[in-house]
Amino acid sequence: MSITNSKKLIAFTLATVLTALFSTAANSSPRNVNSKLKHNIENKTQKEQVQAAYLELISKMERKPAILKASFSSKTKKPKQIKTSYSPKSDQAYSNRLHVTATAYTSHVNQTDSTPNIAAWGDRLRPGMKVIAVSRDLLNKYGLKHKQKVHIKGLEGEYVVLDKMNKRWRKKIDIYMGKNLRKAFKWGRRKVEIHWN
Asked: How far, in Å, CA of 100 to CA of 112, rounded?
């Protein structure tokens, strides 16, 4: 049995039961003729209401299977290729490149300060974000800026400059690892090449 037929059967059964209940209530022995006439009028009104509700229910049910059918038929077709926001660029696509030391950090008080989720410019950090902190010489001497997109060679996607490191560091970046201490320790300290425009 199709979805449409089974829903119609349920709705029809419901409407029949309601009609029978209203009919029984209306036909219960009235004391006089006026009362009987009044019951008949009420019964007719209730019957019309039930019929109207039934028709509305059926029309809604007829629309839903059409939507379901469309979704089922779309699954049988060849799935569309989803485009990701990141498309790999060749190294030549960037105008600036630099070799730096890369470490990792997390949103823990012992690695940052008393507000580990707030970056140097006031941006709020959340696990899963592709963010880096940069040494101040990369900002002053090499031209990186707040919210600059940076590609780290060997890693997927682009990272955004949202944080600054302590003044003592030179030619260094810190890659944000959310709250994943194990991942940060596993990264350790590496020499990487960064690219930006």
From this structure: 21
Give domain status of residue 45, yes or no: yes
Residue 87 within any structural domain of the chain: no
Q: How many angstroms separate the CA atoms of 14 and 53, rounded?
A: 11
pLDDT of residue 145 exceeding 80, the answer is yes
What is the number of domains present in the chain?
2
| Residue 95 pLDDT > 80 | yes
- Spacing of C-alpha 181 from chain mean position: 26
| Count of C-beta atoms within a 10 Å radius of residue 97 | 13
Q: Express each pLDDT in 161-173 by its tens digit.
A: 999 999 999 999 9
* CATH code of residue 132: 2.40.40.10
pLDDT digits (tens, 9 = 90+) for 12-30: 776 676 666 555 555 544 4
Question: Which residue range is the domain that position 50 belongs to?
Answer: 3-76
Residue 81 is assigned to a structural domain of this protein = no
Q: 129 in a domain, yes or no?
A: yes
User: 22-33: b or e for each residue (b if 16 or more CB lie within 10 Å)?
Assistant: beeebeeeeeee
Q: How far is CA 94 from CA 9, 132, 136, 172, in A?
A: 65, 18, 21, 19
DSSP states along 30-43: -SSHHHHHHHHHHH
